[in-house]
Each structure stands twice: as C-alpha cells, then as structure tokens.
Write a structure and sequence with these properties.
The longest helix is centred in the middle third of the chain and has 31 residues, at 12-42. The model has no long low-confidence stretch (mean pLDDT 92). This protein has 44 residues and is mainly α. The chain is built from one helix and no strands. Helix content is 70%, strand content 0%.
C-alpha cells in the first residue's frame, strides 16, 4: 500500500467539480429567490 504524503495529490479535477457545483448551486438559489419574489408580487 502506498504511503500518504499530505499535499502531494493532484486535486485539479476535484477543484473543477467543486467549482461547478458551487456555480450551479448559486445560480439555482438566485432563480428560486427571484421566483419567490415574483410570486409574492404577482400572485397576491
């Protein structure tokens, strides 16, 4: 079994995945908030 050495693993793929996830989550939250505001304005 290989020895683990802290800080030597290539994490480029994990960072790109996390960045994509955060971008998707942020955009989704913004859309949900805008929908709620729109519903509050036009439905009431």
């Amino acid at each position: 079994m290989a020895e683990h050495k802290h800080g030597e693993m290539n994490i480029d793929v994990q960072e790109k995945t996390f960045d994509g996830f955060m971008s998707f989550t942020t955009k989704t939250v913004i859309v949900i908030i805008l929908l709620l505001i729109g519903m509050a304005i036009f439905i009431t």
